[in-house]
Queue: 4 jobs
Job 1
Amino acid sequence: MMQYRQLHYFVSVVEAGSFSRAASTIHVAQPALSQQIAQLEEQLGVSLLLRSARGVRPTAAGEILYREASSILRRLQQLPGIVRSGTGPAKGIVRLGMSSTLLATAPMAFMEQCKVFLPDVVLRMAVSDSPTIGRRVSEHELDLGLVLEDEFAPTFARTPLFKQRLFLIRHRTASKGKAIQLGDLASLPLVLPSSPNITRTALDRAFAAAKLSPTVVMEADVVANTIAAVRAGVGGAVLPKGDLSDISGDDLGRPEAIEPPVYLTCSVISSGNFPLTHAAEAVRDLFTGFIEITLQQTQAPGVEWIAPA
């Protein structure tokens, strides 16, 4: 049976890149460290490390074990806090991820609000795309994530907040400033994210249902690159974004709602396998209210709030 010590030693060796450096870091004799790793490889029946004169690196099996063992060790380290967190003020480190497609200024604004209302909580913010945020939550690198979803993965606990409609974003000179039919959208030159992508999946499903084929002239996976292509006149983009107030410049036209509507769901997610700490629950509740107030203040178009169950 694998032991905590073996997992700790293995993770330390991978992160140090050599047995000698790991032994020095965790204060264990190198022969004992090597023996524990050898026992772990024997128990699993696979080679975990590639050894060379320059050090060690994980095999394919070792990469999998490193990822899973790191997650297990992090959760074990958090366990005392989870047990003690039922009473008293929220306290501890909370790691929150947020989709980069949503309001660009929201992460900084929420960090300031968290300092005021949860002074004993240390917030670690990560901004990325929704699939990356979801993966990091599932691997316990993040405690919470605000993501856009097309389908609900059963591995997460979630609080759906609102449905966000998709909009066409064009250069100001090309924009009509009104709703656009799906058939007309398909005939335009489009700058879309490559598959797999949540927005692309929802859009492709809508096109397929209408027996339409979009005219994709460029694929871009980063919102900043997509907007740059729109500004250069390459084509129009489709984003879950009806408010461009957080994007500088006046060369973009007013977002055009797609008809019939195509939606993504915005949810706060966490691991479905481990409970949240008291601090993480407090951050989740504060963050949920923050997002609702922010979008109501900006009167963000295309937002359809989901009533709590």
Job 2
Amino acid sequence: MKIVSTVALTPAQRKLLLAAAPGAEVADRQCGSVEEMTAMVRAGCEVLMTFRVPENVGRLSPRLRWIHLLTAGADQVMKEPSEYRSLLVTTSSGIHSAAIAQYTLGSILTYVHRFHLTARAQSNRTWLRRQPFMDNVRELRGATIGIVGYGSLGREIARLAQAFGMRVLALKRVPQQHTDTGWSLAGTGDPQGLLPEQFFGPEERAEMLARSDFVVVTLPQTPHTRHFIGAREFTAIKAGAYLVNVGRGDVIDQEAMIAALREGRLGGVGLDVFEREPLEPESPLWEFEHAILTPHIAGSFRGYVERACELLAENLRRFVAGEPLLNQVNIALGY
């Protein structure tokens, strides 16, 4: 079996993969262009680990059986899903959960303690008056957080939120299924689904939004999730709620969100993803005082590839043993 990685691996990472699949061959290279990546795949492989998938990958490498994506989402393969129906596709969902959960709570803490305002004031050498903070800063204890998408990421956000004394509500495609079957870091998340006070289905999202002081969106991009939160949902959302999106940009109707900010229905937003990236300079989002914007970096951390290799090694062990793989993409659902 030949394993191709379009990112460079360390000797320790290669050793980890080979220990999981004895007798395999590993070829890795940091591919800086589509041409380099295509050349590696064309040389042939059974397993491909990559951030990006070359077009016509099945024809480039007829022996290919399995693609492991170094991303949490499977957006790129869903552009031409028919190409992948005969292949196993897995994602790196779960490896980012600690980093993105910390980012999420960091965004919420920044908003409630007005750190974004004090940072701007510091840049201008301005000493802010204390009274607005006394009037506007709130404690997280006792507040309700509604998590839209309760996979590995949503569960780690719930665990951290509970440590701050927050009440947790969760929305899942199948709310009756509380357990998590995906990959997760030891000691993180909520594998059994014990933290939420209540689970909601997709058709109940307006009810959950109406009860949430903070809303966190972790949904993947699929045909079923586009504009999952739109004008109807922003009409139902609790007045003054703070919304964080660490899923995908087009899960939220950006124009409806801007309208909700202008009308004061939203207290603020923390956005790491947008419908169009990079966010265009003329976007009104830049102008809102309580919009905390970052350039799709919530899942970035040192040791990213190392953790991805830990997940791939476990799946290689399962692959060799003929066991079901973790994080396998359901092409029909898009994740």
Job 3
Amino acid sequence: MKSLLIRDIVLDNKPADILIQGNRIKSIGRRLPKNAGRTVDGRGLTALPPLFNCHTHAAMSLLRGYADDMRLSEWLQTRIWPAEARFSRDDVRIGARLACLEMIKSGTTFFNDMYWHGRAAAEAAEEMGMRAVIGAGFIDGGDPARGAAQRRMLEEVRQELSGFSSRILFAPGPHAIYTVSSESLRFIKAFAGEWGLPIHIHLSETESEVNDSIGAHKLRPAEYLDSLGFLGPEVFAAHCLHLSEREVDLLAASRVKIIHVPASNLKLAAGGQMPYRALTKAGASVLLGTDGCSSNNSLDMFQTMKMAALLQKHAANDPASLPAPDAWAMATAVAAQAFGIDAGRIEEGRLADLILVDLDRPECAPGYNLAADLVYSANGYCVDTVVCDGRVLMLRRKVPGEEEIIADARRAARRLANA
């Protein structure tokens, strides 16, 4: 069994060594045996759990800067969807590799994706050494024939991904209530239940989505999903900006996981405010995500933590709302628990997922409060080394093959833009 010794790091404000055997943390202490298969010098670095990006469209890294400063409906219909229609399977793999590279370089080892060509995204995550939930994007537009084809697609992708490592999981990814028929939503709920899968969906992102749902179903979006029997603890719902008090209670009672996506919401002027206080008071689990690069432009979860915390303080008119330790937990331990991954904390016996952060960076000085520094002033450049599943993905800010990944992405983007 391969072993890795990380020597002379700081953990919980104390010097320590971490011994990893296989993909688990074997021991934490001082002066551990130095005959490990590989040794990493951690002097001057602090060991922390890695970040979890709970809502992404990874391959959209190829559309970073392609369509900015536009209204959501115009952005989707005139720029994004036409461009995505030109994506090949290889484009998705290339774009997902670029996204993985960016996430690794900013301390993220897990992402919850939703896109097309699921196997291609899975190949990218597998190659890069990350953990991922690969959500197979599902849109039927109310067309029964298209719905039947999409249902077959789900089973095909599920079977394809069964051959990947345990780091790669599968989820149906119904886009939203306005792009997926009620028949397909019911099917997806049953399909996920049969195979024990999570479900990844956009919910209540805009006022028009709410108004259209009321017009079509006489119910708000979360109420509509509840009427279909769709809600449940396996559901991960992104955005959730425009919720009524009843919807907050419904989502919390159903143990739906809420994914706050602050940067994308701000950039697309989605309006509203994700009711963090009401959701957490009701007992809901709230996670964080970046969204895709075309609606955020960055996959740096440090930015996301800061935006989430500042937005909630502004909305509540209370600087104590969403304090830094809570924002950090949302992006680490809370997310790990929500996805059933035995990580999110650095403890003996847990999965060997961790990052080494350089607190000698100017952003982290003078160093009064670690949580505050991580959430309010740090950024991805503060991450020195990344380990996932016992494998070193980045050492001293260098990821193997990064120049080739970036060059491939630029070639693919030029081809897509000029098509």
Job 4
Amino acid sequence: MLMGERYKGEDKEIIIRQEQDGQRIDKCLALEETGLSRSRIQKLLREGMILVNQGPVRPSCRLRTGDIVRVQIPESRPVSIIPEDIPLEILYEDAYLLVVNKPQGMVVHPAPGHGEHTLVNAVLAHCKGDLSGINGELRPGIVHRIDRDTSGALVICKDDHTHQDLAEQLKEHTINRVYHAVVQGDIKEDRGTIDAPIGRHPTDRKRMSTHSRCGKRAVTHYEVIKRYGKYTYIQCRLETGRTHQIRVHMASISHPLLGDPVYNRDKKDPFHLEGQALHAHILGFCHPHSGRYLEVSAPFPGYFKELLNKIEMQM
């Protein structure tokens, strides 16, 4: 069992149970309530911060019943990202979390080529640095992401308990995430489900694919809102949350998102969009502290409403 409740600057001890016998250590610990991602666990293993029976092991180590695993979680280092006073459209906020309406074109967190003007820079200024540290110093408060050119609702965590609880809800697929999109072509069915694994593209590492040898299960439920002949306005509900999931899934059934620069092979865009027509409209979850269901709706951005008006005028 896990010992302790906090997640920074402390040791945790896990005694391996019979049902965990034979599991890889990184997978086993990721399934435990440690608040650590599998990649973070692998990093701690490489740094010798995780011991099995008092000795260091590799990420490929397979555990045995009765093994004692000690996880040493170091104190989070001060975040080196510079807070920026960037306006935020806040949809909901309390002492534990906030939900923002991310604009199209804004990167969620710093990455190579995008070290400034990200959502994290803006949130750090707004929250005065009071954000969860589970995802490391480059992604404070970030429990899930949406693509740079996708707009809509995104939740930010202010403390580690809130972060861990929402991460567990994501893992259990209990968070309600509804997106609106405009795709190419006339979808014949009123609704449908795409159940196809998603992983890195076999030859293009910048793309995701349903034909990856190492794909993870991905499920998208879609429903037609309105048909426009050449285009279809749809609503998608995510059951899982893989990278580029809606974009990859809709392209896999020959209905790529309008304006998608990566998965739409038709480069002729009569609407001159600056990215895929995809908006995270509804985000609903059980509040980690009150236990009540909280649902937030993100208003549609100007580009999305203008696109629908232009398509209507072509009818």
